[in-house]
Amino acid sequence: MSVTEQAESVEGAESDEWSLSTEQAELRSVEVPASLHGLRLDKVLAELVPEFSRSYLQQLLTQGAVQVQGVVATKPSAKVRLGDRLQVEMRPTAQSQSFRPEAMALDVVYEDAHLLVVNKPAGLVVHPAPGNWSGTLLNGLLAHHAAAAQVPRAGIVHRLDKDTSGLMVVAKSRQVMDALVAMIARRDVSRQYLALGQGAWRGGLREVRQPIGRDPRNRLRMAVVDLGSQAGKPAQTDIQLVDGMDAACLVHCKLHTGRTHQIRVHMAWLGHPLLADTLYAGAPMAGMQRQALHAYRLGFAHPITGEALLLRSQPPSDFMAAVEFLGLRYNPPD
After folding, report:
1. 167-182 per-position pLDDT tens digit
2. Which residues touch 244 (CB under 8 Å, ≥6 apart)?
3. Residues labelled as active-site residues
4. Rg for the chain (alpha carbons), in Å?
């Protein structure tokens, strides 16, 4: 996969619909060729209207904006025939309209002409998604600097879960975005976290090398999987005790890969689910009402200047209050 393809896999396909958010709807009419006879309607639309993403076209289907032979079609799985005339009303959707600037107070810990690093608070969603089409970090970045509108996903190259706090690097140009995506793929970006887990930690450093995939019993979760029988990807997290007691432990986590929910999954697999991480059986404790995870340290070589950047972020008040309540010492590795 090329660097550009890597960046596009990160950024998704919403940017093509964004241009529709301020335009009037247009009608698109296409005819099914012999090569697409008998295929699903959504797949045929994706082939015949390639400038728009399949997810966007599926939204139009559910809105009744697609007709087959003059009859409204709403089922993506419906089969089409050679010669069928498809008419698509290219409407703005909730997804396309979500890519709008929204002024918000961003905690910017570093910024220059090429990139910025933000300290994301817990509760802030990174990308627009169903249920959160506005008020996201992406919306704030579009308002923060004009160039964000010219970069896929406003330059966001990696994610933090909604209820995880901490540092994120954001590109201001496609050149820098491609460079950062490649650096992350090569593991040239150091991402370190602090977490509060349940139970007494035994031993020192734990180098967890367990693959992660979708949990077959709960599609909302990820899980450690056997790659011999289940789909997944290799994942590595180094976890070291900072301080602990019988009820809980404060640990330092270093990511070597960036799988979905990686630290949360590996901590739960070790028998130390994060405090208040109810998705992975973590119980609320010490006042924590969200998973006790904070991205506190981010280090990388500036992709343009080569300068070594090392940014740190003090955990937010709820995390520190839990540390104090539990009687733990906050002294993360340098």
Report:
1. 999 999 999 999 999 9
2. 200, 201, 250, 328
3. 161
4. 23
